[in-house]
């Protein structure tokens, strides 16, 4: 296959993995990613640790098309090559840092007790030191204890380096929140495909702390599954409401930044998001009302069968 053929065709996943399964090729992609602009053949050769220019030329040729573009100005990354370099540099491919449970100066949004955070498997896990918390840790973090679990936030390994446990938690809050805003809007945060959204309702819900029947604090659980990639999101229905403009305004009017809150107000934002009342009016068709509170003020969002907000009252 010539470079021109490769530019026109999209490799299968097998072909893409095979193309990338070589150290010299990954070094070429990283060198192009670090460059300020297109690199001529000789400039690129100088930046990659390989002695034999014939072998170098062969590997470069395998990348040209889908991963690397070639113009009169030289070689440069195409979007697929850029995504590979970003994944490597985020640490998502090679790095697996672990932070053991550490108490930080943040409070549980349910009971106000100090919290502890840990980091493993690309997630920050959050635990209350006093109350039972909520449901259970994600199955992808199989060694995480359930006692006191308050939730987990995705964060690439690069977000851990050079940060204290408190700073890791703050970075994760913002990083995860931006993903949640995308997913609440129906767009996969990883690949941008349209998410399949659904809701489940616990039939025998007991509202105190953690329900014996479903293991959750809230009966209404939101599910967003990506039909294109492996991303999925499951949790309390607030996950579908975080991008609602009335809820965003409810927070900002109280001086709370709902996107990247200051250290001192993270717990207050979490308290509004996580301690809402829910009233299920009907399961088929689905209709429920969610009431958020801050001080004496409340905001009620009624959600219809298409999972969109159909009524707002304050
Ligand atoms: Zn607690
Ligand atoms: Zn339940
Ligand atoms: Zn996706």
Q: Can you offer a commentary on this structure?
A:
It is built from ten helices and 13 strands. With 314 residues, it is an alpha+beta fold. Among the domains are: 87 residues, Arc Repressor Mutant, subunit A, CATH 1.10.10; 73 residues, no CATH class. The strands form four sheets. Strands 3-4-5-6 form a four-stranded antiparallel sheet. It has a four-stranded antiparallel sheet with strand order 10-11-12-13, with helices on one face. Strands 7-8-9 form a three-stranded antiparallel sheet. 28% of the residues are buried. The mean pLDDT is 91. Bound molecules: zinc ion (3 copies). One zinc ion binds next to loops.
Structure, briefly:
The chain has helices at 3-8, 13-20, 23-34, 41-47, 53-63, 79-89, 165-184, 238-241, 245-252, 266-274; strands at residues 68-71, 74-77, 99-107, 114-120, 123-128, 149-154, 196-201, 220-225, 232-236, 277-283, 286-294, 297-303, 309-313.
Q: Helicity range of the residues? A: 25-40%
CATH topology of one domain: Arc Repressor Mutant, subunit A
Identify the strand order in the major beta sheet.
3-4-5-6
State the CATH class of one domain.
Answer: Mainly Alpha
The count of DSSP E runs of length 2 or more, i.e. the number of strands, is 13
| Ligand set | zinc ion
- Secondary structure category: alpha+beta
> What is the end-to-end distance?
63 Å
Helix-strand layout with pairing:
Layout: H1 3-8, H2 13-20, H3 23-34, H4 41-47, H5 53-63, E1 68-71, E2 74-77, H6 79-89, E3 99-107, E4 114-120, E5 123-128, E6 149-154, H7 165-184, E7 196-201, E8 220-225, E9 232-236, H8 238-241, H9 245-252, H10 266-274, E10 277-283, E11 286-294, E12 297-303, E13 309-313
Antiparallel strand pairs: 1-2, 3-4, 4-5, 5-6, 7-8, 8-9, 10-11, 11-12, 12-13
Helix pairs in contact: 3-6
């Amino acid at each position: 296959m010539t470079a021109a053929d490769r530019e026109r065709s999209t490799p299968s996943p097998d072909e893409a993995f095979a193309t990338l399964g070589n150290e010299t090729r990954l070094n070429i992609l990283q060198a192009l990613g670090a460059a300020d602009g297109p690199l001529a053949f000789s400039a690129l050769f100088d930046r990659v640790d390989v002695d034999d220019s014939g072998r170098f030329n062969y590997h470069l040729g395998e990348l040209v098309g889908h991963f690397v573009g070639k113009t009169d100005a030289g070689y440069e990354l195409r979007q697929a090559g850029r995504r590979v370099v970003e994944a490597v540099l985020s640490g998502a491919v090679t790095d697996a840092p672990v932070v053991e449970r550490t108490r930080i100066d943040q409070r549980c949004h349910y009971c106000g007790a100090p919290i502890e955070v840990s980091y493993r498997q690309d997630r920050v896990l959050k635990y209350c030191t006093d109350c039972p918390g909520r449901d259970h840790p994600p199955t992808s973090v199989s060694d995480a204890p359930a006692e006191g679990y308050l939730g987990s936030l995705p964060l690439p390994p690069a977000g851990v380096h050079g940060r204290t446990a408190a700073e890791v938690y703050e970075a994760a809050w913002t990083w995860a929140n931006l993903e949640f805003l995308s997913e609440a809007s129906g767009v996969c945060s990883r690949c941008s495909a349209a998410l399949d959204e659904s809701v489940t309702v616990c039939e025998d819900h007991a509202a105190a702390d953690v329900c014996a029947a479903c293991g959750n604090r809230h009966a209404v659980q939101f599910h967003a599954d990506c039909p294109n990639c492996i991303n999925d999101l499951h949790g309390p229905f607030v996950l579908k409401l975080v991008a609602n403009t009335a809820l965003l305004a409810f927070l900002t009017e109280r001086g709370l930044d709902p996107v990247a809150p200051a250290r001192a107000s993270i717990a207050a934002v979490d308290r509004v998001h996580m301690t809402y009342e829910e009233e299920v009016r009907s399961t088929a068709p689905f209709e429920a009302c969610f009431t958020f509170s801050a001080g004496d003020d409340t905001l009620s969002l009624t959600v219809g069968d298409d999972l969109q907000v159909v009524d707002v009252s304050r």
